[in-house]
Amino acid sequence: MKYMAFVGADGLPARPDVAVMQREIPGYIEEMEGRGLRLAGRPLDLPGTAVTVRVRDGETLVTDGPFVEAKEFIAGFDLFDCADLDELIEVAAKAPVAWFMAFELRPFAAGPRLGADVAAFGHFEDGASHPYQLSVWAGGPHPAAPIDEAVGLEVEAWRQDLADRGQLILGGALGGAETATTLRVRDGQTLLEDGPFLPSGQLIAALDVVHCAGRQQAIQLAATHPAARYQAIEVRPFEDM
């Protein structure tokens, strides 16, 4: 079963913590990819690089900044293929990132679409393109209406079009807040909480990772996403090497 493990940050990590993660993460990735459990993963650029896109009454509305304005933010993700949540918890608890930050563990609502170059994306092999994450946000005090089946079919057609053009790296809808588990490792102890990482209860309902020529094309793709008519889509680049 495919799971998304979003990295949750409580602000920027301290320099010594970053040094430990930079030293330890490559060995962890090698182990988990060798076991066939980690399919891809990558840190996002900082929230200040994001824009939020909505389409209302046919008009594209673009706001500078992330969808959630808070000191906590989603800093990246790892995509895992695990037998069940117990195996995912075991795998995520070994990650050096979990020693200093958190993981929000979420199953996909259905099997995600994975492009042929998803592994290359995870190894920062982007060629001339730039990967962007288009995150459909939900939850919080004023949640948007859920996407119905007809819009879901539109989204799948939208993804198919991107795949046909070689722009889709991965995409899919995620399980709701009731499926989320937040994991931290502190002093060697694995700490689990039910629910999403952000204290506001907001969470990413679906995401698509796409190849783009640059920021403007990423915004244009977000504006064509069928969910943009009903919810907000955060457009954010990934870190380069």
Account of the 3D structure:
This protein has helices at residues 15-34, 85-93, 118-122, 149-164, 215-224; strands at residues 2-10, 38-43, 51-56, 59-64, 72-81, 102-107, 113-114, 130-138, 168-173, 181-186, 189-194, 203-212, 232-237. The chain has 241 residues and is of the alpha+beta class. The strands form two sheets. Strands 4-3-13-8-12-9-7 form a seven-stranded antiparallel β-sheet, covered by helices on one side. Strand 10 (181-186) and strand 11 (189-194) form a beta hairpin. The radius of gyration is 17 Å and the shape is globular. The two termini are 29 Å apart. The relative contact order is 0.23. The model has no long low-confidence stretch (mean pLDDT 94).
Draw up the topology in text:
Elements: E1 2-10, H1 15-34, E2 38-43, E3 51-56, E4 59-64, E5 72-81, H2 85-93, E6 102-107, E7 113-114, H3 118-122, E8 130-138, H4 149-164, E9 168-173, E10 181-186, E11 189-194, E12 203-212, H5 215-224, E13 232-237
Keywords:
241 residues; alpha+beta; 7-stranded antiparallel β-sheet; 6-stranded antiparallel β-sheet; 13 strands; 25% helix; globular
